[in-house]
Amino acid sequence: QAQLVESGGGSVQAGGSLRLSCAASGYTYSSNCMGWFRQAPGKKREGVAIRRSDGRVTYADSVKGRFTISQDNAKNTLLLEMNSLKLEDTAMYYCAADPGIWTRCYAGGRTDFAYWGQGTQVTVSS
Questions:
Q1: Rg (CA), the chain
Q2: CA angle 106, 89, 33 (to 5 degrees)
Q3: Which residues pair with 22 in a beta bridge?
Q4: Are 112 and 68 in contact (CB under 8 A)?
Q5: pLDDT tens-digit profile of 8-36?
Q6: How many CB atoms lie within 10 A of CB 37?
Q7: Which of 5, 39, 74, 97 could join 34 in a cystine, given CB atoms 3.0 to 4.6 angstroms apart?
Q8: Is 97:31 a contact under the CB 8 Å cutoff?
Q9: What is d(CA 111, CA 38) in angstroms, rounded to the nearest whole number?
Q10: What count of Cα atoms within 13 Å lies in the side-chain half-sphere of residue 61?
Q11: What is the DSSP letter of 28?
C-alpha cells in the first residue's frame, strides 16, 4: 500500500531550524515527483520543495536559500532541512508523491499529487 509518514515538526523560535522527515513505501518513494507542501489556516496549499526523479529540484521563492530537500535512499526517506525559520513559515507541512507528474513537477507546478502523508505541524514564534 502507498504510505507516506511525516515527522519532525514542532515549535521553534524565529531564526531556528527544524528537520522534517517523510518515510515512504518503496513504490511511492520511487515516484517521478516527490516533495513537500505546506498549508497555513486561511491560505492555499503551496509547494515548498519539489524533487523530480531525474534529480531536478525546485523551491518556492519564499524558502530559497533557507530550505533544502534531500533523500536518504537507504531508508526510503524524503527530508526537508529548514533553516533561518520565519514566522510566515508556520504551517502544516505535508510530503507528497505522484508517479505520473513530470513536466509540471516543480515548486509552483502541480499540487494534486496522488499520495499524501498526514502532515506535521511547524510553528515558528518570535
A1: 13
A2: 20
A3: 6, 78
A4: no
A5: 999 999 999 999 999 998 777 778 999 99
A6: 23
A7: 97
A8: yes
A9: 11
A10: 1
A11: H
Measuring CA to CA, which residue among 109, 126, 123 is closest to residue 41?
123
Backbone angle region of 55, left / alpha / beta, with phi > 0 → left and psi within -120 to 50 → alpha:
left
Neighbour-count burial of 116, counting CB atoms closer than 10 A to its CB (0-12 exposed, 13-18 middle, 19+ buried): middle
In whole angstroms, give the CA distance from residue 110 to residue 116: 14
How far is the C-alpha of 38 from the C-alpha of 87, rounded, in Å? 14
| Grid cell in block for residue 109 | 507546478
Is there a contact between 57 and 48 (Cβ–Cβ < 8 Å)?
no
Question: 67 CB contacts (<8 Å, ≥6 apart)?
Answer: 48, 49, 59, 80, 81, 82, 83
Among 116, 120, 62, 59, residue whose Cα is nearest residue 89: 62
